[in-house]
């Protein structure tokens, strides 16, 4: 299947909330349906496009605009671009939405919510402990702002949902919008 | 028409040699044949992906790798990415070729040759005069190196060819490789 216009699936949320964890099965489902899918992981893009940038607001904005520019360029040509960067600032996310929609492609913002309490408990990389102890500056959600989306297309909450429940919500939205066939998810 | 794997058309050559001038009609012909075509212009990419980078070897290499990474990602999804940046260093061009070919996409290096004498005479932006007077540091071909491709897929020479002649050479190569139908160029 080849769509003339593509889509940007924009995951946003705190570090460790589950953006990459959720984007992987969604990418797999869309690929299975014949779409060209490209996952733009925050870390990979930092390596290739944003080496040298730090975590000040300006540098974060620049990084997100670069991811957004690549997602826009891919979506314009029918690819489904999936991004999974924290993208803490609302105005830059909205700016990118504008770029993508201007090409005729779709833009779906997925807010992956999770409480700091749960994130600190999970703390896979040990970063929340350090940040809460004041040892990491500019740590989103602790010592740096995270602006929640005001009107996201999908909200999932990994504090209370299983991965399967969150995937189902996203699949439901993609089905509603015609990107996935009903029953794409058989599990 | 939708190809499973795309192509990167990599123009290289000195400033003012004719890279953008030649890429425009080629992009138009490929679009006319139904391909998804994206022109990654050196200046546009500098604005979106490489703001803050200068013209040292390291910064130039980083800029070219970023253009290359985007071209690779597009080509991987069936797009024809056309780049028109000076890209003075051979090793980085070859590195990008490796990335693109690894995805299964094609890579065609087009060397747009032009003598410094002719460029200085044309001097559309008045830059060669300044560079030859020693007023611009790191000016490719005058005060900074340009490494000619050792084995380009197409060579055009805008010192001695008309734009039409050069376009014909590129079209012939694209036809030979099956990207264009014979007689795509009717002029």
Describe the structure.
- Two copies of one chain form a homodimer.
- With 187 residues, chain A is an alpha/beta fold.
- The first copy, chain A, has one domain: 3-Layer(aba) Sandwich (Rossmann fold), CATH 3.40.50.
- The first copy, chain A, has seven helices and five strands; from the N terminus they run βαβααβαβααβα.
- Chain A has helices at 19-32, 42-49, 57-76, 90-102, 116-122, 127-132, 163-176; strands at residues 7-12, 37-41, 80-84, 106-113, 154-157.
- A five-stranded parallel beta sheet of chain A has the order 2-3-1-4-5, with helices on both faces.
- The longest helix of chain A has 20 residues, at 57-76.
- The A-B interface holds A 2, 36, 38, 48-49, 51-52, 62, 65-66, 69-70, 73-74, 76-79 and B 2, 36, 38, 48-49, 51-52, 62, 65-66, 69-70, 73-74, 76-79.
Q: Output the helix-strand order of chain A.
A: EHEHHEHEHHEH
Beta content of chain A comes to: 5-15%
Quaternary status: homodimer
CATH topology of chain A: Rossmann fold
- Spatial strand order of the main sheet of chain A: 2-3-1-4-5
Question: How far from one another are the termini of chain A?
Answer: 23 Å
> What's the CATH superfamily of chain A, by name?
P-loop containing nucleotide triphosphate hydrolases
The major beta sheet of chain A can be summarized as: 5 strands, parallel
Mean pLDDT level of chain A: 92
Largest interface: A-B, 18 and 18 residues
CATH hierarchy class name of chain A: Alpha Beta
Count of domain modules of chain A: 1
Overall geometry of chain A comes to: globular
Known CATH architecture of chain A: 3-Layer(aba) Sandwich
Radius of gyration of chain A: 16 Å
Structural class of chain A: alpha/beta
Low-confidence stretches of chain A: none
Number of E strands of chain A: 5
Number of helices of chain A: 7
């Amino acid at each position: 299947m080849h769509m003339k216009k593509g889509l940007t699936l924009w995951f946003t949320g705190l570090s460790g909330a589950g953006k990459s964890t959720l984007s992987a099965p969604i990418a797999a489902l869309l690929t299975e349906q014949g779409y060209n899918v490209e996952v733009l992981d925050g870390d990979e893009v930092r390596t290739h496009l944003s080496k040298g940038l730090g975590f000040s607001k300006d540098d974060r904005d620049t990084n997100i605009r670069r991811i957004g520019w690549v997602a826009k360029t891919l979506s314009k040509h029918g690819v489904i671009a999936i991004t999974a960067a924290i993208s803490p600032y609302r105005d830059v996310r909205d700016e990118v939405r504008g770029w993508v929609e201007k090409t005729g492609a779709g833009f779906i913002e997925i807010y992956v919510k999770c409480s700091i309490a749960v994130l600190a408990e999970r703390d896979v990389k040990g970063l929340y402990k350090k940040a809460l102890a004041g040892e990491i500056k500019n740590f989103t959600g602790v010592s740096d702002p995270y602006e929640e989306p005001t009107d996201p297309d999908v909200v999932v909450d990994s504090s209370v949902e299983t991965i399967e429940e969150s995937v189902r919500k996203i699949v439901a939205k993609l089905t509603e919008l015609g990107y996935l066939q009903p029953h794409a998810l058989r599990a």
